[in-house]
């Protein structure tokens, strides 16, 4: 489920809806802006656009303000010069920590805590990857090293990273237009072409980390009496089916990948360029796995429909940059399926631990949305088929 920022902007949501309309019209030219707004509201976990607008009104101006002493320490440690205003939260805490906005006399910055990054990293390899990607032409918020040259600094019990603030529009929402997915494919091929070595495949995308079966988890949740327990029980067969995607198949060699190229981590910058954020989960993956994960994230709408034009454009963009595609099959969605399963289990743990009315309300909405919008192996096969019929002149191996 998409998450509203701490100080949501209705203008940004309207722009998101217009961007989404272009993607929806790739599949159905009859879709109206009102239809796109309703679809966007659903992605945020609300029944109607009016409900989403009401939540925006309720939350506006509620960003948290950090201790001024913490802001000054951050600025001093990372060489940002003098703080000129309050450091404000950007969004509710996520699986890693929390994002903030900080202004100094040198400009605007995007600090964030990275206390629970998976896989655990000291940040150096991650930062070197971002720096290499930027040199190759990927638009991204540049990582800022501290005065000591470190990527991460520990301040008041948290691990902090800082990025330059890059002006852009709001995050994108799937499905997006074919012109955008073509650029996404190009970006993926550029990153894979760096061929930065990886010692292993990211466990998050290759190993089910939980020990309990889905049926056991459903029983545990039902015993807690939470509102989303029936949704989890209904999803158990599909979750169990997703565990079998790619089971027993050969695993291609990994390279260092972004590992999170999803619409929520991409924004449109000046001139329509794609600005890629969310690099903290970068890890080793086979390029085929990341490409298939992108197909599932960008060319499948929230209700499971396939945006054929977007799927075709994504692989066309990749092929235009790389010259060819990696060998793809439904087994190549193993990383997408495994990462999703680990995410569902993790979000269930977070929801069960939620305290306070606001957090519990958010957890309930998030889990209901997540469990009722799961892809299936059939969805993976359909989006792959759509992508690989893009160019009948492509080599047969690339269309398998």
Task: Provide mean pLDDT, rounded.
Answer: 93
Helix content: 40-55%
What is the alpha-carbon Rg in Å? Answer: 21 Å
- Based on the structure given, which CATH architecture of the largest domain is correct? Alpha-Beta Complex
- What composes the largest sheet? 6 strands, antiparallel
Count helical runs: 14
Number of domains: 3
- Element-level helix/strand string: HHHHEEEHEEEHHHEEEEHHHHHH
Say what the CATH topology of the largest domain is. Answer: Aminoglycoside 3'-phosphotransferase, Chain: A, domain 2
Query: What structural category characterises the helix and strand content?
Result: alpha+beta
Proportion of strand residues? 5-15%
| Number of strand elements | 10
Question: What distance lies between the first and last C-alpha atoms, to the nearest angstrom?
Answer: 32 Å
Low-confidence stretches: 391-400
Q: Which of globular, elongated, flat, extended, rod-shaped describes the shape?
A: globular
CATH class division of the largest domain: Alpha Beta
Topology:
Layout: H1 10-27, H2 33-43, H3 49-59, H4 68-77, E1 88-89, E2 100-104, E3 107-113, H5 124-136, E4 143-144, E5 153-155, E6 158-164, H6 178-193, H7 214-224, H8 229-242, E7 255-257, E8 266-268, E9 274-276, E10 283-285, H9 287-298, H10 308-322, H11 334-352, H12 357-371, H13 377-388, H14 396-399
